[in-house]
Specification:
With 781 residues, this protein is an alpha+beta fold. Helix content is 47%, strand content 22%. It contains 23 helices and 22 strands. β3 (296-300) and β4 form a beta hairpin. The longest helix has 44 residues, at 436-479.
Length: 781
Amino acid sequence: MRSGDTLLTRVRARLPISIRTLLAGILAVGTGLLVALVAIDVFPYHSINDDEAVYLTQAALLLDGAFFIDPAPYPPEAVRPWFFILDDSAVGTQLYSKYTPVVPALFAVGYRLGFGTWTVGLALIATGTAGGVYLLAARAFDRTIGVCAIVVLAGSPMFLLTSATFLSYAPTTFLNVIFALAYLHSFRAHDQRLLTWGWAIATGFATGIAFFARPYTALLFALPFIIHTLVTVGHQLRDFGWSHQQTRVAVTRAFLTAIAGCVIVAVALWYNAIVTGDPLTFPYAAFAPADGLGFGPHELLSYEATYTPEIALRTTIIILQSLATEWIAAGIIGTGFSVLGGSVVIYDIIIGSSDSDDSSLPSSTISLLLISIIPTVVIGEAYFWGTYNGLQNGLIDLLGPFYHFDILIPIAIFAAAGLVTLFRRLITVLTIFTTRQRARIVIGIILIMTAPIIGVTGESVLMDPIEANSERSESLAATYEPIKEHSFNNAVVFTPDTYGDWQAHPFQYLRSDPTLDGPVVYATDGPPRRDMAVIDATNRTPYRFTYRGDWTGAVEPVTPALQQLSVRRGAVIQIQTTVGQPQNLQSASVRIETDDGYARYQVTPVNHTRSDQTVLVRWLITPDGVWVRNLPTASTGGETVQLDTISTFAPSGSDLSRSKNEYKASRDNRANITTNTTQTAVTLPSGPSEVDLMITFVGAGGASITYRQHVSVETTNTTASIKDNRKPSVRAIWPAKTQVCRLTTDCGRERTWIGPTSETLNGVSINASATGYHANISSVD
């Protein structure tokens, strides 16, 4: 035994740091690696909080040395990322983020250090925070409690999940932890003035940068330290006067901290002036002026709410209950240890028990500063409607009450303190009845018996939100499958406008390079004029990413599809649409519609008992109008025109993207096509517009199936020529947006036709092809 003690003593003597500090370092690095693992495994496509794409896009901008995205040559609304502000200035249209660049800069540094891997930044921030928690706990209590505090922090679901996302909460807490450590160090070793002043300046820089990142969050965290500084300076002036050395040290320390903080605030105001044009207007205020502090009406884009003290109180109670039972390590057990640790601190302060070791600040004061963070954050966040908003949109259910992320620091420290203090007191009590060694054996037995209970509770608390987020990731994986399977090169991909004209919202995994010159540019699908402008902007190959189903925030998967697009051009575009007749639906009608008017067409009745019947609709799009050529007109509405068509059609090119049968039919019809008829056509407005075709089958009792095709078209001033004949032309984006729906003619994206499913009725099918022709068409009213 003595030889073992001697060996251990020798090892300790050779180590430049204590074994517990070494263990803390290992645990801190392990925490960072664990966060990286969660980011990779649980969030391979990021979380459903689309703010991640905002920070990553901004980080990529900073790596390119820019604050703004230049959308040219694309329409700004088509490539505008989520939470980016569109600014029309004298230098042209620019896009900038509603968030400040501090957190993106941290991610950018991590990207550089990780040789092009974004996740490295998350791991470094988590490692730094865990290490900071150890140092704070060691200063407030001792190193053993510091080691335990890292374990509690790493076992807290909110810390793991929120730290594994590219959001601002964990990085700001990391900056706040640096601020707290620097503040405590500025009170040490008064005989080393330069060191004291250096730590004071570091304190100001840290809190200033945190303020730049999240002003209100930084203020709430720093408030106990600000009060402590004011009280300290006040006491020194009252007790000793200005001439006393300690007074001058206290005032100088506070002054240097304030000056350093003001320097960073000045940088923040400078940034505001660059992006918003007003030093006092932060980008988030420019984006949503009503999304701020206080009670009363609030608004963020289309979401509005009146935030009242009653709602604040109810929200705060819900958050505290959730935090105590679901988001702290071991749930209610961890919360109980935290309460115990805090109670011991308060009791020691009341009875005046404290020690100061080598610090000018006694441990009880440090503990009081840390414990004061909890009420300031809780009360302060009650004054902000963000938490209420987070509960409404479900983000807090998946990531925890992230606006309260800062209080994990004191909670982890005091939970560790409660646990260690409990067992130390038990040892003290047991030594009354037995030897200290036997007391430790008893405590070891108790630990072995209680560890499974704590472990099972901790695993349950930890795994529930991880499994919930993993299920969302599985849905996202299914959604992005067509994108993952395709390798883009000089492409532009239209994405759905699920939440309006926003890129990476909700599909934040699909992000363009901020310079818009990468292998793929993502553009939000929009009106025909904008889609045409996107295609015309460059010579990129266009695609359409779409899906069938209701988007539920990845709660349920959707059926995705990636379609390569092309632009059909000619004096005439002929489209052939063949649809299957659903069984037991006997009557059918066809309607073609433009922004100017519509026309209905008669369909010959077919045998409703067979499921292999089809209906063929040949429809033409020309600069003069749109009509169905193989069906008689039943009725019209709006602006129409009578066309006497004497047409000789010559195909302007083959369609290689069609199926083999369609391509063969196209080849068979490559000989000139001649028609001589009078048609009632629905006129097209000038410029880009949309043409809709609806084919509706109706059966007994009102049952119906509707096929819809939407084609973006544009009549142009350019001409298509065959020999010397020159006429205005039309162009269309193909394939059409196709939907199939039941019991309604207004299908919506959730009924996008991707292909048959198990729920598809017998007989439902659709095939279509489009060909542009040069033609000689004369028309009269």
